[in-house]
Amino acid sequence: MSSAGPQGLQAVPRELQDREAWLDPFDWYERMREAAPVRYDPERRTWDVFRYEDVKRVLNDDELFSADPQKADDFVEPEAPGEGLILDTMLFEDPPRHGELRGVVDEWFQPRTLADREPHFRELAGELLDDAVGPHGQMDVVADLAYPFPVTVIAELLGIPPSDRDRFKTWSNTIVEAASDEENADAFAERQQQTQMEMAQYFLEMIEDRREDPQDDLLSVIVTAESDAGGRLSREEALGMCILLLVAGNITTTNLIANAVRCFAEADGDLFDELRGDDRALTSAIEEVLRYRSPVQAMGRVATEDVTMRGETIEAGDRVIVWLGSANRDERQFEAADTFRPNRSPTQHLGFGHGTHYCLGAPLARLEAKVGLSALLDRIEHVRLTEAPLQPTRSSFIYGVESLPIRYDER
Ligand code: HEM
Fold first, then answer.
1. Is 114 in the pocket of ligand 1 (CB under 6 A)?
2. What are the distances in angstroms from CA 85 to CA 76, 130, 255?
3. Cα Rg, the chain, nearest whole Å
4. N or C: which end of the chain has fewer CB within 10 A?
């Protein structure tokens, strides 16, 4: 696997670089939690933090640990136009600007706002499954449901016309990909830059369109914030926000849904049967998937002052990676942490992060997972994974599989 990743997550440690290791990083995490819970990796010039308590501490302290990669001593300005847009977003801003940016779209991601759209989300999931499920008894959970569903939902919320959705899917995927073994680094970088520019150009046109003709969609909310008297957003920030909403919520939710099917199919007994029609049990099982196979395994921060953790001194300007996927398997926090327990009571997992940057889209992701999975449970039973070897995602910080073929009986 390549070391490419979004800003602040530039490098995968040597230990996880081959694809097999990325499918099962959990033993390595455990060894690190015990032997070197806070360690400096000179190759990546980065600190790694593995224990639950320490990860939470870093995420809780915006002053000591900035989310802005530009504060790192070794930060390199992106060269290509458009590539830096993501740096102007809430994800990489510290308070107080962070709160101002998040405030622009916050309302749209509240559970009560989303509840109105749930029936429509059910229809979308139903349509996808109408095409995929049949007497042939097999499907690829990723290609048939987990991938198209979240991208269609966010495209609708933003107000992207259905005819542009395929382009939209390709972009959202390219942005979080790492280079494949077959592609050299330059070709990969060029493809990434090309995508960034196409996306920026596309959103610029959409922004112009909404300025003239506002609709009931997120793009119009963003445009209004850009053009209102207070000038709450600059043009770059408005563009960055569109791109962030597109990329942050797709591949993550795709992997939540696919990881859930994988966990359910591997569980003892017939978990599909137990969860069918029981929203509360399904909701709790989804939380356990977020803990046990966290779609986002790592996040980046930069120390703003010298700080000591577990006897190690992290210096101001050093990059720090917090391993959410490791924190969520920490036995100090979770009993039988390496066991998937679908009815585990509230777990305080860190799958959506913690503190100021706690995932804005968490209510949407939870709703999509519930709607998508219950639509699937309604249509199929006796689900089995096939013998096909699983391939991990090509992203350097997202946990999941490229495809998940299953066999089932139609209900
Ligand atoms: C932030 C995970 C779905 C939008 C985050 C963070 C995590 C995360 C760990 C914290 C980043 C940090 O601390 O630096 C996930 C997972 C998802 C998911 C596991 C699905 C299972 C979504 C969706 C959206 C979204 C559906 C919206 C469409 C965002 C945004 C932020 C964020 C905008 C930045 C929040 C801030 O900086 O205040 N997400 N996410 N995410 N997520 Fe999600």
1. no
2. 14, 38, 25
3. 21
4. C
- 249 Cβ closer than 6 Å to some ligand 1 atom: yes
Expressed in angstroms and rounded, the spacing between residue 77 Cα and the centre of ligand 1 is 24
Contact 144, 128 (CB under 8 A): yes
Please tell me the distance from the alpha carbon of residue 176 to that of residue 114, in angstroms, as a whole number: 26
> Measured between alpha carbons, how far is 289 from 284 in angstroms, rounded to an integer?
9
Nearest CA to ligand 1 atom 30: 360
The rounded Å distance from CA 361 to ligand 1 centre is: 5
Distance 358 CA to ligand 1 centre (A): 7
Predicted confidence (pLDDT) per residue in 358-379, tens digit: 999 999 999 999 999 999 999 9
Is the pLDDT reported for residue 2 higher than 50?
no
Q: Is the omega angle on the peptide bond into residue 161 within 30 degrees of 0, that is, cis?
A: no
Pocket probe for ligand 1: among 237, 359, 366, 395, the residue whose CB has the most ligand atoms within 8 Å is: 359
CA–centroid distance, residue 407 to ligand 1 (Å)? 32
| Whether residue 245 has its Cβ less than 6 Å from ligand 1 | yes
**How many angstroms separate the Cα of 78 from the Cα of each of 7, 69, 317?**
9, 12, 18
Predicted confidence at residue 341, as pLDDT, reads: 97
Q: Nearest Cα to 321, choosing from 69, 86, 47? A: 47
Q: What confidence tens digit (pLDDT) does each residue in 306-327 have?
A: 999 999 999 999 999 999 999 9
The amino acid at 355: G
Distance CA(121)–CA(110), nearest Å, equals 15
